[in-house]
Protein: DNA-binding protein
Amino acid sequence: MKVIIDTNALMIPVQFNVDIFEELRRLGYDIHLVPTAVINELNILIKNLKGSDRTAAKVARAMIDRCEIIQADGHADDVILNLATDLAASVLTNDIGLRKRLEKRDIPVICLRQKNRLEILP
Structure:
């Protein structure tokens, strides 16, 4: 199954010490997609953040090597919403605003639960 990974989700391993790729495998997701809009967002965060948040963004940028990159630029949330619809993919995100938009379109959402595991929202 396909999953699109949002910027904040790529930062989960550093911020919460959760292996998102192992958790996604456990949930049955074996195709990990990252749009270029997310990569652009990470590059901006690396430039602008400091301390542990900057480290999390740098690690997230390095983890993209484990994903399939999709050429799709623009506002990351809009790009993710459109790609999820077009590709019939789920989305891994902790962004509440994006989650609500995805749920309105009946797109499966995966998020961090209890700061230690990923879960597919009903």
Remarks:
- The chain is about 50% helix and 20% strand.
- The two ends are 17 Å apart (CA to CA).
- The chain has a mean pLDDT of 96.
- The chain has one domain: 2-120.
